[in-house]
Amino acid sequence: MSAGLERRGISDRALALADRVEVFVRDTVIPYEKDARQGPHGVDDALVKELRALARAAGLMTPHIPEGGAHLTQRETAAVLIRSGLSPLGPVALNTAAPDEGNMFLLGKVASDDLKARFLAPLMTGEARSAFFMTEPDGGAGSDPSMMQTTCVPDGNHWVINGRKTYITGVVGAKVGIVMAKAAEGACMFLVDLPHPAIRVVRILDTIDGSMPGGHAEIAIEDLRLPADQMLGAAGEGFRYAQVRLAPARLSHCMRWLGACVRAQEIAVDYTNRRHAFGKPLIEHEGVGFMLAQNRIDLKQAELMTYWCADVLDTGAYGTTESSMTKVAVSEALMRIADNCVQVMGGQGVTADTIVEKVFREIRAFRIYDGPTEVHKWSLANKIARDWKKAQPES
């Protein structure tokens, strides 16, 4: 892994931690990649428990939030999470995976001390998983969260929530839920213990990816009654809190999948140096070598964008524009890298003999999750237009 860029503005302690994470993933996690306790809907909870026990024994559980609860800077988090992503199982083992990583960040920022003790603490120890209930079926909230149809209505010192959600990652087996709903005052966020009888799994969706425990589900929420003190903040602040979560979460995705593509490149380089065709190693054929050269360029550009955006978020800004730009640039670059790795490996690239084909599938989903490229470009174009109008002299 490249160390030069990381060393700027990162403590020796955080760099040493990142190095320990890399050793753990390479030596301990990667041997589990062919474990049968993985399927189309994610990693089985028994495997999650086993891997997390190993991380805990190594002193690496939730490494980006060291003991005491002080979250690393985003720049330091990048150094750690990139390493955790060297295996698709790494984030699961180390408790740096979505949606838990983003949910922990949000709760650490906005939850009361009581809510942190009840809901955040078991997430940080890796003893619980979580789910974030925002996206809805057709006609509801998705890329446009203002279309939210799930409602919450006050009833004494409680709120009653009704609606449907979809693409809810990790809800099967989760113990903590963050539910977004719309009140007269605007969007609201609530914390809920899972499973809950008022939250019903309608179906588990069959998706192209399969790295996240619990898969992705369609959910029905029917008369979910929650005490008012389980609301995050005040009524109407839900969208503001969503930005607190979503901007860093987009960047964390970039970090983890950058690590996965670093590993895919390693595998492809090894394969093309060992495999011969037409009298020489594959890598000596320009058509192959040039793709791997482009991969190296894209990896470096993705790394630069990731650390740049981390620096913006470390200023305390939500960094919505910067995280959108980074999500677009990095996800598209990683897609090219994964595709090139599959291509240069030929038939071997589309088998499960290595993680390359899995990384390809996961990156394809990443281009959509947390906002597809086109939505982020649309948002950026609107900002460009607004900035231009503000810059015009008054007539």
UniProtKB/TrEMBL annotation:
Pfam families: Acyl-CoA_dh_1, Acyl-CoA_dh_M. The keyword Flavoprotein applies. InterPro entries: Acyl-CoA_dehydrogenase, Acyl-CoA_DH_CS, Acyl-CoA_Oxase/DH_mid-dom, Acyl-CoA_Oxase/DH_mid-dom_sf, AcylCo_DH-like_C, AcylCo_DH/oxidase_C, AcylCoA_DH/ox_N_sf, AcylCoA_DH/oxidase_NM_dom_sf. One of its GO terms (cellular component) is cytoplasm. One of its GO terms (biological process) is fatty acid beta-oxidation using acyl-CoA dehydrogenase. Keywords: FAD, Flavoprotein, Oxidoreductase. Residues 131-207 form the Acyl-CoA oxidase/dehydrogenase middle domain. SUPFAM superfamilies: Acyl-CoA dehydrogenase C-terminal domain-like, Acyl-CoA dehydrogenase NM domain-like. Belongs to the acyl-CoA dehydrogenase family. This is Acyl-CoA dehydrogenase, N-terminal domain. The keyword Acetylation does not apply. GO terms for molecular function: acyl-CoA dehydrogenase activity; flavin adenine dinucleotide binding. It comes from the Bacteria. Residues 236-382 form the Acyl-CoA dehydrogenase/oxidase C-terminal domain. Its cofactor is FAD. PROSITE patterns: ACYL_COA_DH_2 (PS00073).
